[in-house]
Amino acid sequence: MDQHRSPLIVYANFFSDVAVSLAAHDVLTQWAGQAPRKIWLLRPGDALVTPVAPSETFHRYACGLLGVPYGSLTVMTAPAVEGLPMAEALDRSRLMDALFDLVAARPGAELLPIVLDASTAALARRLGVTVAPYGPGGPSASAVDAVHRLNTKTGFRALAAELGIRIPEGQVCKGHTLEATATAMLREYERVVVKPDRSAGGHGLCFLSRADTAPAPFRNESAGTWVVEERLDVVRSVSIQMHLDASGPRVVFSGEMRVQQGSYTGYVSPLAGSGGAVAAELERWGMALGGQLARSGYAGPYGVDAILAADGRLYATESNVRRTATTTTQFMAVRLARAAGLDAPAWLLGRRRTRAPHDFEDTVCLMERAGLSWPGDLAGRAAGVVLYEDAPSDGRTWRYAVLGSTRTAVFETEEALAAVMEFEEPQQA
After folding, report:
1. Cα atoms in the Cβ-side hemisphere of radius 13 Å centred on 82
2. How far is CA 18 from the centre of its chain?
């Protein structure tokens, strides 16, 4: 970890037209609840520009685990404006002067966005700062275009075909032909999944089978682009996260996604069981995608999601050319583990509901009394829990991370946490 790097302005631009349309404001608002967790990326002198501010309790908790003084991290709240990307919302809310002041107080600062979109590149030029990890020249138009294109289902499918990356059988169509396309696909395949072209986190997915009378939900769709794919029998949902810089693409981590009804609910890393062969194929695909991104001028994080099907083969489902739900928490896991003397941690992310509501301080106390808090006695227990996200609004739907020396240790600690927190039984997919 470089202690001499430039100050960072972490720009939590969840309100962007890259992952989903800006018209899906409710979805973006829900996702923006993740923004306070970006505090795990900060070091003293850094700043977080966020549409949702971390609570003081969560802020102090994170600073305590990171070993940084409370008050050494600056948080600037930039409320969302419906239909606008975050950069334009800053203008509308008359916050640009405050942002200029924040930059002026950090000579040499770099802007670290969650996703590189056109409005963010323009904002960096206006502020006179570089976009991490780009140099003074900033990201090229082709890099911004690659991000916009490869965060779509159609963009990835087209490139996967060129690169020899295996994908499920499917058809691309426009909204006015969606019902006919789905009906035709169901004549060929027992089950299909219908995906909006620009979708993430399971948003907008619909699963159909021949037993359904008709794909009625799509009869009123007249706009947009859709993908209708064969729905394969899934054994495992996996992903690989990569990073691309001047030295080329490299693997950061791989793991298995926890999924319910097509929606992401958690993650486990590293892969286990037959994970060696799966990780190797994922790496080949990630390197191939990285080569294409390098030719576009892109630099930064990206990943490939895939499924291991019942036929024993791996199928890629999408690329994510941005920071995802796992990139920040993996960085946090490694940062905290190394500070505790553990170089290569196993880790998992979970999302579970408690039978009764808790507040943040009570939850921390529960974990401490049970001896589950990170880092605890690593020599004796070898794992601990981190509340990597702020308290949920309902007091019940908690996100947590478990870090440890082995997968076995983190799973055992998660079981102990479930008992202490009185989690409800997870819903079956």
Report:
1. 5
2. 13
Mean pLDDT of the chain: 92
- Which two three-digit tokens encode residue 42? 């900060």
Helix (H, G, I), strand (E, B) or coil at 419: helix
User: 235 exposed, middle or buried (CB, 10 Å; 0-12, 13-18, 19+)?
Assistant: middle
| Closest to 376 (Cα-Cα) out of 362, 391, 387, 386 | 386
Question: Which H or E run includes 303?
Answer: strand 300-309
Tokens 């301080």 belong to which residue? 361
- Rounded Cα gap, residues 207 and 261, in angstroms: 9
Got the DSSP string for 17-48? TTTS-TT-HHHHHHHHTTGGGGGGG--TT-EE
User: Which residues, at least 6 apart from 172, have a Cβ–Cβ distance to it below 8 Å?
Assistant: 154, 157, 197, 225, 226, 227
Instruction: Single out the residue of 381, 362, 252 nearest to residue 304, CA to CA.
Output: 252
Task: Report which DSSP code applies to 261.
Answer: T
Q: Which of 17, 15, 21, 18 is nearest to 34 (CA)?
A: 15
- pLDDT above 70 covers what percent of the chain? 93
* Residues 10, 204: Cα–Cα separation, whole Å: 29
pLDDT digits (tens, 9 = 90+) for 351-375: 999 999 999 999 999 999 999 999 8
Task: Give the pLDDT confidence of 316-329 residue by residue, as tens digits.
Answer: 999 999 999 899 99
Place of tokens 């990597």: 388
CB-based contact 299:245 (threshold 8 Å): yes
Of 158, 275, 287, nearest to 227 (Cα)?
Answer: 158
